[in-house]
């Protein structure tokens, strides 16, 4: 607030309109409003950050299995309530999924289904395939484990698998296939289950899914057991035992293997194995599995030695009743009925009837059928039991066939969809490939066109430069030839003519001799000057040539100041050296003939890959229009031929300035 007050005082002191101070109270109110608005925004942002932190903390607590299930439920409910006030995003999906898991652990199955549906709706809204897959998994699990509606459960597991296929989440795809294989096994679709589990093993990742891979081997073993492939069943049970990293799962798979030894009538081996399992204290932490081992041990001992094991059977039964293990109760009732078949038929019948009632209650027709079969053996003349067995067996076969067909149809339809998607993807890829090819062709054509234009431009530039060089060389050669011809022929002829005139004119009037002599001498000197101006230039010693040129014009009457001796010329092409030399020569000649100057300054410098030579004299100057009429027009042409520029600055009485840039 102190800073705000200072700011307002500054405004009061500085803000003036028409020499009058503006009422700064308005500005104070505006600034205070902005200040508190920013404060509110910061508070809101800070509040949101704190709320998100609380949500994440509650979520972590809900996943902490060291906490009690009640505390975990409280934590996830708090997170859910806090999120209900915010925008729905991925964190909301995470909380909804965890809420479903907690409700299942609390056996609040209706809540599990309710929040699974909310999760699917939310995941679908934000197009999140991962949580769509998780929502479908929760629905499948509810229908599979709670409602025992296996065909619907299979459907949702399959949908979940497809969601993860889109994400290419290999591990989750393998786990859903494993769920589907269990349903097929429980529905007596053993061949279908084997095929599905084989597919699951292709997706499960060994480093990540050891538990599920071991479970897959266990399902394969069970399928082979029911298909009477006993050797394969034993092989896969052993693989499951070796593969798992869970000690309790290892005991469960060992129990399953021991049951196979009962079926192969290796009772002694089975009994030893069951007893070893019971020696492990870990089995007591899972009462249902301990009851299975106790029941199987009693059954193996009875089958081996026909000893009294009723107490052991009842001990296992008590545990199963306490744990509400309905599937386990069917096994106990059936074993007790089988045990009493030849001892007490009434007791046997009572146990079988209990097995039948329990099987009906949990919709396990296979368990009921097994009990009816034993009951028929006990009472062969019981027509009611026979009729029930026949009806149930036919119904079960039809139902299993229907379920197998449904499973096959779901998978077949799914395969058709996948193939259709793959076909569409192939079409899209083909179209993209064609577009890409066309684009590539256009790019190639464009590049070829550009390359062709660049080549033509480069070649044209090369030819122009070559032509310019050749033109310069040709001019130079012509100048040399003219120079030689003037020197060798014209100048010598004039000299000889002058000698002749001098001799022949001695007899005539002296005045005639003097006039002719002067004219011939003048003609000779002009021819000599032209010869010198077009003489050969030693481009290899160009710096020396330039100094010689300067020395010719650096006399007592005219002083030449220059830095050309400091400039490096070795990288300059020969034809450019000749052009520069001739232009400087013409400037010196022009100065000698017309400027009447006392001092000439000749300065050279290099700037941005260009060489700049500035010529200045303090002569009388001239009209700029007369420059174009004297020899300097040739100088312009020479510089233009080397792709340079020659500019003049002059006026009467102001001296003369020329700038060469190339």
CATH topology of the domain at 538-661: Heat Shock Protein 90
Assembly category: single chain
Question: From the coordinates shown, what is the CATH architecture of the domain at 538-661?
Answer: 2-Layer Sandwich
| Strand order in the largest sheet | 3-4-5-7-6
Q: Which class of the domain at 538-661 in CATH terms?
A: Alpha Beta
| CATH homologous superfamily assignment of the domain at 538-661 | Histidine kinase-like ATPase, C-terminal domain
Counting helices, strands and paired strands, the structural category is mainly alpha
Mind telling me the C-alpha Rg?
55 Å
Could you report the average pLDDT, rounded to the nearest whole number? 84
**What helical percentage do the residues reach?**
over 70%
Instruction: Report the end-to-end length measured between terminal Cα atoms.
Output: 68 Å
Low-confidence stretches: 1-5, 8-22
Query: How many strands in all?
Result: 7
Count the DSSP helices: 24
Please state roughly what percent of the residues sit in beta strands, choosing from under 5%, 5-15%, 15-25%, 25-35%, 35-45% or over 45%: 5-15%
The major beta sheet can be summarized as: 5 strands, mixed
Shape: rod-shaped
List descriptors.
about 650 residues; mainly alpha; five-stranded mixed β-sheet; two-stranded antiparallel ribbon; about 5% strand; rod-shaped
